[in-house]
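Two records follow; treat each independently.
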Amino acid sequence: MYILIVEDDSLIAMALEAILTDAGHRVLGVAHSSAEALALIDDAGAGAELPDLVLLDIDLSDGRGAGIRLAEQMRRRWGIPALFVTAQAGYAQDNRSLALGWLRKPYDGTMLLASIEAMRRLLEGDGPVTPPPGLELFARPPGRAQGW
């Protein structure tokens, strides 16, 4: 999958990027704020290749809950699905309409990759998806063309 990482903790972001690339995923980039994420998506969209999925922390460098507003913008403007990757259970569950699911922090590489595979299967309509431990699914999208 082609994935954008939006995480304000640099160490977590670097670890995410390494895990994803080692597993064969392509990473559009790492953003620490909403503005950085929007700039990366705008640049990618200019080349006609938007990310398949955004791994999105809810609290970013530009404020508590900034990831919620970003998820809403990405969905409305580009139809890009998000997976909340956060310890903020209440925010994630209260905003379930803006993401495909929620991966609880802390998590390990195995949990992350199993969650990414579940997201891929969900987005491609590849049969029933059983979430791995640590992942809560929020939505079963019909596909990006219909606004997932």
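The next record belongs to a different protein.
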Amino acid sequence: MERYTDTISGEELYVVKHFNYKHYYKDREMTIYHRTDGPAVEGHRDDGSVGDKHWLVNGKLHRLDGPAVEYLYGRKEWYVNGVFIMELDKVGEVTKRME
């Protein structure tokens, strides 16, 4: 387990590498995903390129300046404080939205 200082909040986070993913946690028990200066879960492919990314704050999917989830194959999902807003497919077409 590594330590990481969030550059926006100044919080000390716990980082765990698991297979090709990095997981950022607020607590030592690793139950609350959290990061404000980037994705709290980020995947990397074997060739080093970026994979899936998930932005979480206090354990909830959350991002105000873009999608909270970006999948390797192009789908993107927007959430604010854990509430689903919308989803776009890989060409940018809305596939689901908040009702």
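Discussion point: The chain is about 0% helix and 45% strand. How would you locate this feature using only the token line?
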